[in-house]
Design a protein that fits this description.
Length: 189
Amino acid sequence: MSQGEKVFTWETPPELWRGFRAASPGWRGKVVALYIAPQSAKPMVAVSEVRAFADRGLEGDRFCRESWSAAKRPDKAVTLIEEETLHVAAAELSSESFGDKTRRNIITSGVPLIDLLDREFTIGGVVMRGLRLFEPCGHLEKVSNIPGIFRALEHRSGLKAAILSDGVIRVGDPLALREEARRATSASV
């Protein structure tokens, strides 16, 4: 993080991250679920695909706006969380999986989100940049109706990202670091 960037109290320092850690550096990730929240504090809606707009957000999501950069909050465009983390947290709470209750837009599998911090990556054809790891919001337990969810997701609540290019994101899309995606594309040409 550069000196000019704002640090938020809900940011998770990388050294405290408890999320998924890949067994090898050559991980292969994908999108396993997509959600949008049309209204604040209302249930999220599962979608099979969603249009992403650079600097704006996801179509139909309440956080989609004219420009997050102009508001000096590019980290509000999209959120990701690891499926592996959700399984561990659900087991800790003796609960069924609750991805739809986390208030995160994209659930990934096989991707250590900490590896995306401060790096560009692609989901399908959409380019993003990981901006910050973050903590669950204070009203998550009330909105989710899952006692203990705040503690279960502490220090592994997800990654906020900026959207750098327009495109469509679909369930099943591959997720890769941008340099890895470039190599895979050039190798197949």
